């Protein structure tokens, strides 16, 4: 089948920078899916995205769908003809619906009789007929929360669309898309090349734009050019290092078609303001990259990326310096003003701020969190007074001028202001560490005071919201309780804190008077333990290992984690599958014979066969060895030791009839199996692991 390259480019007004990459990806995926569904063969797929264009190029696109054999079954032969052999209405109706005569039908023999069938070959549609509809559908399905209209037309898109390139080889596919007449003409840079440019073939697309139009159409190429240019400029002009935030880099890439990095300067006096405030101001409002020295100290420099090559770059730099100066002046003013009022004097200002209608104000939450943090601090051998103090001050920076202007600085400014107030170093740090980890993989609190406040704040939210029956549902999680749960688990495990979730949630529950749900603490604990599944899935630990431990419901996260790691190690042993199978068999037997009513006291005088005597001796020997290990939480060593029971267990089941006629002997054997199983259950329900086939 013949092939040609295909290109589609939609030209628009400047697209939203944060949405550009997702729009480009979705546009490409929509076209690819359309081709796959249509059965059209194609080669490599390339995406292009710039502020005023979305484009997709498909290499070696077949010129048509493949022909498809079609078979349509009609009536049974017996029902198709009457006794005289003439066609019945069933047959003539079927033939008429297909636009054929009965003699064009074949007969299909099946085990249920003979049927009339119509067989034909459906010709594949030419690609030039398919592509406009695929492009239109892909554009219609883009993730655009709010579409707009322009001009007198009824077409809607994220921004007004002005031109369309639609080429198959060197041929324009002339079918309109979004009421735009396609052609082979794109447009260059708005200032450097404000004219139409001919694209002879899809292969010429980015070359024409780059060489004639001052447009780098490839998003990834443009992104790396900006990164390299910014880094080189920082090193060359300041012997420094540009700090490149990846999200900001994506946004800057989406703002520029022809990026040119330029370095500007601001007054040294602004460096007295916390670096985070300066960075936030430059990054959020101006999309600047900041520069640091070899010791990571901020320099009074910034790098902006202009969307053109200026004949006089100093004018562009000067303009940017004039724009950033009032921004930094505002930050300096906020910082100076905020430091005149101590954080403790701002506690009252939290009372009018609602946390949640039924759960009260931010002040009410602070009081609850302070009481809970104090208890947690005692439990982890930290200073309860410091934790209580930090929790009461934790949200006070929310009412400072700086955080009201730059909301992403909450906690960060709290730490600076607490240090300025002369608060204990751990208290000051905790005001920032309360929000850690902010996202997956983020740093954890470094102080125990910070750990206590971070855990208390999240547990208070979990217990409060579950207690008024407002848990997360589906994709709705307005209070980020899933993230809060994972944060608590990470802090406890990675900081190795001896906390029991059940106890901590019960402490939290006692601080509320408005909860309407029963057993809130237990419900929250179950919810949090369920979050462990995703936690271990990310580490490559199978669901069966998590489920084996979860079946025992250990409520101390550190203990839960040790069990999971031990079971994962046990699962790798050659004896694991056989012992998992034996545990499953034992579990089934015990369940049928009374379950929990069966004890585990073995009477040695009732042991008869050599295999059961040997198993009893080995179980007793292992019990003496592993019980101290369980007490120490050394589950890995305990399970490794228990793996040695595989052979006596196998022999027991091969040679001993558990359900003996003698009731005393039978019950004694059940007790032995129960004792065996309970040793494993001290760690996890091993019967849930995969067994030997």
Model description:
Keywords: Aminoacyl-tRNA synthetase, ATP-binding, Cytoplasm, Ligase, Nucleotide-binding, Protein biosynthesis. It catalyses: tRNA(Gly) + glycine + ATP = glycyl-tRNA(Gly) + AMP + diphosphate. It is found in: Cytoplasm. The chain is of the alpha+beta class and 693 residues long. It has 5 domains: 3-65 and 127-212, Alpha-Beta Plaits, CATH 3.30.70; 68-122, no CATH class; 239-339, no CATH class; 347-540, Hypothetical protein af1432; 561-688, Isoleucyl-tRNA Synthetase, Domain 1 (Orthogonal Bundle). Strands 2-3-1-9-10 form a 5-stranded antiparallel β-sheet. Strands 13-15-16-14 form a 4-stranded antiparallel β-sheet, sandwiched between helices. Strands 4-6-5 form a 3-stranded antiparallel β-sheet. Helix 1 crosses helix 7 (246-255) and helix 10 (362-379) runs antiparallel to helix 11.
The total domain count is 5
- Structural class per helix/strand content? alpha+beta
For the record, what CATH class of the largest domain applies? Mainly Alpha
Judging from the principal axes of the Cα atoms, what is the shape?
flat
Helix content class: 40-55%
Count of extended strands: 18
CATH level-two architecture of the largest domain: Orthogonal Bundle
Q: How confident is the prediction overall: mean pLDDT?
A: 93
Provide the CATH topology of the largest domain. Hypothetical protein af1432
Number of helices: 25
User: Which regions have little confidence, pLDDT < 50, spanning 5+ residues?
Assistant: none
Strand content: 5-15%
- The spatial strand order of the largest sheet comes to 2-3-1-9-10
> How can the largest sheet be summarized?
5 strands, antiparallel
C-alpha termini separation: 48 Å
CA radius of gyration is 36 Å
Main location: cytoplasm
Domain DALR anticodon binding: 585-686
Protein name: Glycine--tRNA ligase beta subunit
Subunit structure: Tetramer of two alpha and two beta subunits.
